[in-house]
Amino acid sequence: MENYPKIGVGVIIRKGNKVLLGKRIGSHGSNTWSFPGGGLEYREKVFDCAIRENSEESGVEIGNLQLTTYTENFFEDVERHDITLFVIADYISGEPKILEPKKCLAWEWFTWDNLPEPLFLPVKNLKEKNFNPFKI
């Protein structure tokens, strides 16, 4: 196992007063709820990663991307250390689809004050920072 942090990008898609979350399966954080997102690739720009990951995972069209904050996440069970950069995006069109059925069980829209449990560690850490994507 590599002993240095990995960089992830989480895409907080706002639609009205709700955000899109998917139920993770088949990898670390299985059975938790998370935003679309994933690992930043070598020489990939943060917004390009956000667009790519969202396109690969949910298929909804997004726009008006803004880089906001980050969380530092220690997944002790898999000896993994991640830094997650959060990008806010506005929903443009489309219905969320399960495009990676081995990684995601469902996509649903939730109000920020009523997110499902359990949350993926970066999302949990984001909430603990009292971050609110609707107050940007």
Radius of gyration: 14 Å
Question: What fold name stands as the CATH topology?
Answer: Nucleoside Triphosphate Pyrophosphohydrolase
Query: What is the element string, with H for helices and E for strands?
Result: EEEEHEEEH
Per DSSP E runs of 2 or more residues, the count of β-strands stands at 7
- Give the number of domains: 1
CATH class term: Alpha Beta
* Helix residue percentage: 10-25%
User: What CATH architecture would you give?
Assistant: Alpha-Beta Complex
Number of helices: 2
**Main beta-sheet strand count, sense and barrel state:** 7 strands, mixed
Distance between the termini: 37 Å
Relevant CATH superfamily: Nucleoside Triphosphate Pyrophosphohydrolase
Unreliable sequence segments: none
Beta-strand level of the residues, as a percent range?
35-45%
The average pLDDT is 96
Helical/strand content category: mainly beta
